[in-house]
Amino acid sequence: MRVLDAEIEFLLDKGMPSGGMTMRALGIGEIPGRMTFAARQDLILCGPDEASRLLAHLGAPVTFTAPDGIQRGKGELLLGLRRSPIRLSAPQKRARQA
Fold this sequence. Notes:
The chain is of the alpha+beta class. It is 41% helix and 21% strand. It has a domain at 33-98: Aldehyde Oxidoreductase, domain 3 (Alpha-Beta Complex), CATH 3.90.1170.
């Protein structure tokens, strides 16, 4: 089942907290950074394409994606991306809510 871009936009508009105030105050908001998502436990990865699209909508294109359906062990990389900290904070906050 394909998730429509309109559904991604709805989820972002509804659930994304405003943020970046700390980074702006510290003056580090636009310094390039990177973020990785790793498995918390052994799993079979599901939905990396949708996660990549969601991150792209936030202006944080993914640089690495493990294939859908692959088995991953605890600590193994699932997704990786590079962006400014302000742009990185939004997907990180959203991921913590899940």
